[in-house]
Design brief:
The complex is a heterodimer of chains A (328) and B (536). Chain A is mostly helical. Chain A has 13 helices and no strands. The longest helix of chain A is centred in the middle third of the chain and has 38 residues. Chain B contains 16 helices and 22 strands. Classes of the chains: A mainly alpha (328), B alpha+beta (536). At the A-B interface, helix 2, helix 3, helix 5, helix 7 and helix 11 of A face strand 10, helix 7 and helix 13 of B.
């Protein structure tokens, strides 16, 4: 356990620097984008010079970049994410309203792609080079090559428009006043299509990784030893070959969580899911710097936490990891 | 009035088809509106501020016009194209210094307080004039609003202001909000800006960010038996393809403002139970315009501008980019405007040979590689059609030896590049014609506008004659004399080409057959929907 604690400590200290770099970097990047929040706003309203000046002043955009960055960091130190200019509401409120949706979507999609992907990977890797291995490998590659929005649209046309089994989009039936179990069921129904669209794309990654790891493991001496001991094939596949191929998949899970946040921008738009991805896109389009920074911060924290969990899982799964930290 | 469903290419065919289609038997069902029901429709954006008195824009009106009413609304057959809402009558004095509004009696705000002339005076003086995007121009000389009694509001102007302009501005600029809610605190920070309170047929009920807006029936509405609907729900669908799918799956009953892309209309018009409607947007005409930076010496030459105008095949643009749902433009006022439009202006037929000859004459000979000079072309990203026209214009210019490089930006970057930084040679823009050239049209060519004002002359164009004409028209009180001046304005603009008007278009609605009383006024999508109903 001390091993895990030492790891945790080191990672947390590192995380603070990561966060600081991410915030300052994103701020500068967004400032470098041409046009500010007022430019984005007047696209839909127009307005004369006086009105534009008034808006810049009210939104604090007449201050220098440095002042704004300093103000932002100062507020952040007090755990204040500030006020969104596009929504004229506190950013913390906006983000935490949407975070659960994104977490459910991301979590379900990750679980789907990881579980189904590794299961199919084991199935394919049990007999590398067999017909079912080739079929699964090619099929999963094809899925991986499909753009997310297109897969989403196809799912909508087939299951929502033609068959009408599932709703087209949204996170729940709008203005339905459902509560409790009925609401949970409603949300689950709405999640089937977006989770499938998001999950199926990343499924290939886990499948191929598992399969490749297993193909390699088959050639190892310990497999030969296991065979020599007369273990059943099933046991060799699950307890020896697959288990050894599992570790890189756990690493992938951590890396993938960041990617999944990005991938959900497209899926959230196609399925009209009110999540963080769509919010981020709106923040960029509206040049809402504080809102975007808030989203990036929360996502960074999320990714850091997930990777921390992955590291901990690693430390538990593989005795070699973290041994040096504990002794240092 | 019954629904009028015009098929494809309705706008292209213009008046001839309009005549023919009114002769068609009325399409539809029960003519007596039915009470009750929830209308669900697609919304593609979520405006940050829902107060139409501050933000007079279609995105805001789309939702707020059902809650907050204006003094008058646009009408196909009313006098001067108007019909009464909160005002019953309006009259301008001959000297242009006063306009008197008689207000509707017995109107109540959604919180039960009575609506009076004090609300009108407050809205006009405290909001329209100092804060509203369009009102700041139109009401700039408004000095006071007298309220001799609760149902009379007398607008007093410091300088003579044409009554025709005030009248034409009423449908979009005169949203009245309750004084008793707005007189405390800063108007811009008032909570009612996000949960509006008005006198309209529907009350603001609920907003779930990223999901929907819900409006509920106002039982105390002044209109007899109105509204018919119990609820209106705007479902936020950010992806344009999903609006069409939602219509087909019967999850929504209406998609207005061209939420269904033009390319899908042909297919969707064949889906049983759905209708495509091109009517109801006559008062919201968008103009496809080539904005020109006259600081470039080549473009400061009239011959070059004429050559560009001759190089554009407007029919091709309308058929290929707008799929027929647009009309060719002749000048800065759209053809469908009933008051000001004149066809008697210089025109530029599609003629590549002539365009080439004009460029040769101007002294820009083709170099060995066939090119005369290079340009930066910035198509506005707000509509698919403006982007597609940018691609077309590049090819059209190549045919006359002008090498245009397309620069793509998102909305904020485009606004900054064109209207603040002037970092363009040509730009493609979609200005809106708002029923009177003085509201947002003359500004496109007038000189002396500060940098950074969007949808204005930022191309450095300066024409003393035209400026004088614009000022004269803004001071002319007599309606017919003023109208004549704006006809003269159209001629001058078409002759000197400070910008090139290519096409005029508006939006398309797709609705289920059950939605009744659609498109019965020229600003239907942004009107109050008191008489909209759901049959069956």
């Amino acid at each position: 356990m001390t091993r895990a604690l030492a790891l945790l400590h080191r990672r947390l200290v590192g995380s603070v620097f990561v966060l600081l770099i991410v915030v300052i970097g994103s701020f500068l990047l967004l400032e470098a984008a041409p046009g500010d929040a007022v430019d984005a706003y007047i696209v839909s309203t127009g307005g004369d010079a006086g009105m534009i000046e008034l808006l810049r002043h009210r939104w604090g955009l007449d201050q220098s970049e440095l002042t704004r960055l300093a103000n932002y960091l100062w507020a952040l130190l007090h755990l204040d994410l500030g006020q969104s200019v596009t929504f004229s509401r506190p950013i913390r409120e906006i983000i935490f309203e949407r975070l659960p949706t994104t977490l459910i979507l991301m979590g379900s999609a990750t679980a789907l792609s990881f579980c189904l992907g590794s299961a199919l990977g084991i199935y394919a890797g049990a007999r590398p080079g067999s017909f079912r291995d080739r079929l699964l490998s090619i099929g999963s590659l094809a899925l991986y090559a499909v753009p997310g929005f297109w897969l989403g649209l196809v799912l909508i046309v087939v299951f929502a428009v033609d068959l009408r089994w599932l709703p087209i989009g949204g996170i729940e039936t709008i203005a339905s006043a459902k509560t409790g179990l009925a609401r949970a069921h409603d949300i689950a129904t709405h999640l089937v299509l977006p989770v499938s669209a998001l999950g199926f794309i990343y499924l290939a990654l886990y499948l191929r990784m598992m399969r490749a790891g297993m193909a390699e493991a088959w050639r190892q001496d310990f497999v030969l030893a296991a065979r020599a001991r007369g273990l059943s094939r099933r046991r060799i596949v699950l307890a020896h070959v697959a288990r050894n191929a599992l570790l890189p998949l756990v690493t992938m899970l951590g890396l993938q969580s960041a990617q999944m946040l990005g991938g959900s921008v497209v899926i959230e738009s196609v399925f009209a899911v009110p999540g963080l991805g769509r919010l981020a896109q709106e923040a960029v389009a509206g040049r809402d710097t504080p809102l975007l920074l808030g989203i990036i911060l929360v996502s960074t924290v999320l990714v850091i936490i997930i990777n921390l969990l992955v590291d901990l899982a690693y430390a538990v799964l593989d005795p070699r990891v973290g041994a040096s930290e504990a002794s240092a | 009035m019954s629904d009028l469903t015009i098929s494809r290419r309705g706008l292209l065919a213009g008046s001839a088809l309009l005549l023919a289609s009114t002769a068609l038997p009325t399409i539809g069902f029960a003519q007596t509106p039915k009470k009750g029901g929830r209308l669900i429709l697609a919304a593609d954006s979520e405006p940050r501020n829902l107060n139409p008195a501050i933000v007079a824009s279609n995105g805001v009106f789309f939702i707020s016009s059902k809650i907050v009413e204006t003094l008058a609304e646009a009408s196909f057959d009313g006098k001067d194209g108007l019909e009464p809402r909160l005002a019953l009558s309006w009259e301008g004095a001959a000297d242009g210094l006063t306009v008197t509004f008689k207000l509707r009696d017995g109107v109540k705000w959604h919180d039960g307080k009575p609506f009076t002339s004090a609300d009108v005076a407050f809205s006009a003086l405290q909001i329209w004039k100092p804060l509203q995007n369009l009102g700041r121009t139109v009401f700039k000389d408004l000095e006071a609003v007298d309220t001799p009694d609760e149902l009379t509001a007398v607008f007093k102007f410091a300088k003579p202001t044409p009554f025709q302009l005030i009248r034409n501005a009423l449908p979009a600029l005169s949203s009245v909000v309750p004084k008793h809610l707005y007189e405390v605190g800063k108007i811009e920070d008032n909570p009612a800006n996000n949960a509006p309170v008005g006198t309209g047929p529907f009350k603001f009920a609920e907003y779930k960010a990223g999901q929907y807006y819900r409006l509920a029936r106002n039982d105390a509405y002044w209109g007899k038996d109105e509204p018919y609907l119990d609820e209106i729900v705007y479902q936020v669908l950010p992806d344009r393809t999903s609006a069409a799918a939602a219509l087909e799956a019967e999850e929504i009953q209406l998609a207005a403002f061209s939420a269904v892309p033009l390319a899908d209309l042909d297919r969707i018009s064949k889906v049983p139970g759905l209708k495509v409607i091109t009517k109801g947007y006559e008062g919201l005409t968008y103009q496809l315009v080539v904005e020109i930076n006259h600081r470039r010496k080549e473009l400061a030459d009239l011959k070059v501008r004429q050559a560009i105008a001759h190089a554009i095949d407007k029919d091709f643009v309308i058929k290929t980019i707008f799929l027929g749902y647009a009309a060719a433009a002749t000048g800065p006022v759209p053809k469908n405007d009933p008051q000001f439009y004149t066809a008697d202006v210089p025109t530029y037929a599609f003629d590549v040979a002539k365009a080439n000859a004009l460029l040769d004459e101007a002294g820009y000979k083709r170099a060995d590689d066939g090119k005369r000079f290079a340009l930066k072309l910035l198509p506005a990203p707000y509509f698919n059609e403006t982007k597609q026209f940018g691609d077309y214009l590049r090819q059209a210019l190549a045919a006359i030896g002008i090498d245009a490089e397309i620069v793509n930006n998102d909305s904020a970057a485009h606004i900054k590049a064109v209207y603040t930084d002037h970092a363009f040679d040509l730009a493609v823009g979609p200005p809106v014609f708002r029923g009177d050239p003085a509201i947002s049209t003359t500004i496109l060519v007038q000189s002396g506008i500060p940098d950074g004002v969007p949808f204005s002359n930022q191309g450095g164009y300066k024409n003393a004659d035209l400026d004088a004409l614009i000022i004269k028209a803004s001071e002319t009180l007599d309606t017919s004399a003023r109208t004549e001046l704006y006809k003269e304005f159209q001629k001058k603009v078409a002759a000197d080409l400070p910008l090139i008007n290519v096409a005029e278009w508006s939006f398309i609605s797709v609705a289920r057959d059950t939605v009744g009383n659609i498109a019965n006024n020229p600003r239907w999508a942004v009107s109050n929907w008191a008489d909209t109903y759901l049959a069956g």
